[in-house]
Amino acid sequence: MEKMAFGSFSEDDFSCPVCCEIFKDPVLLTCSHSICAGCLQRFWETKGSRECPVCRTQCSKEMYPLNLVLKNLCEVFQQESSHREPVCSQHHSKLKLFCEDDKQLVCLVCRDSKLHKKHKFSPISEAALEHKVELTILLKTFEEKLETFNKVKILYNKTAQHIKVQAQHSERQIKEEFEKLHQCLQKEEAARVAAVKKDEKQKSQMMKEKIEKMSREISSLSDTIRAIEEDMGAADITFLQVDVFHL
User: Fold this and answer.
1) Burial of 29: CB neighbours in 10 Å, binned 0-12, 13-18, 19+
2) pLDDT digit string (tens) for 30-56?
3) Radius of gyration for the chain, computed over Cα atoms and rounded to the nearest angstrom
4) Does the residue 215 lie in any domain?
5) Can you point out the beta strands (E) in the chain?
6) At residue 238, does pLDDT exceed 80?
7) Most confident option among 97-101, 111-115, 124-128, 156-160
8) What percentage of the chain exceeds 90 in pLDDT?
9) 3-class secondary-structure state, position 61
10) Eight-class DSSP state of 173
């Protein structure tokens, strides 16, 4: 099949008048207008009546046949468009130059227009090469920076691991030192408690002996007091006969 040419057609020729996009399943109305099937149904639901969105002619049918010719043309047009070189949206001419001032692709007509007056232009190939060189230099800079970042990250990871290991070592060392200190304190505690108990025992024994001695003296003195009281209660003659001064 011979390849179809679309040089005299634009995207508008294959666009739905409702959604303004390339036709999707276009249906052919009685009035000869074509509308996307989905767009037509939505238009009817919005309006509340069945009529052509373009000429407002009443549509007598609920469904209309698919415009296969237009559908095929739209598919071919989209395929052709995807392979064609981009053209200027204003003048529909091939883009030949790159405007250095506006940083955009332009055609020869754009170059001579007032919009780009006194601007600097370069052939697309030269501009692309120049920008590729700039991007290559920038890319190299980014790659070097990325390599530096990766090295720094590795160093950070090693430092973080070292900090973790060092902290674990310090923790073990602290626990060991405090365990030794606890043992020493326990021994010191036991020694001091033993010394206190020994001192208490000695002093308690000494006080016990003093208390016993004092008890004996109290008992002896009490006996003497009772004897004197008994003598004082005796008759005068008996009392005078007792040698109270030699008690």
Assistant:
1) buried
2) 999 999 999 999 999 988 889 999 999
3) 60
4) no
5) 26-28, 34-36, 97-99, 104-106, 121-123
6) no
7) 156-160
8) 49
9) coil
10) H
User: For residue 35, which of 47, 24, 26, 44 has the smallest C-alpha distance?
Assistant: 26
Task: Assign residue 77 the CATH number of its domain.
Answer: 3.30.40.10
DSSP per-residue letters across 27-57? EE-TTS-EEEHHHHHHHHHHHTS-B-TTT-P
Q: Is position 68 within any domain?
A: yes
Picking from 22, 12, 64, 20, the residue whose alpha carbon sits closest to that of residue 41 is 64
The answer to whether residue 168 is domain-embedded is no
Q: Which domain holds residue 39?
A: 1-84
> Residue 52 in contact with residue 61, Cβ under 8 Å?
no
Residue 40 lies in a domain: yes
pLDDT interval class at 20 (50, 70, 90): confident
Number of structural domains the chain divides into = 1
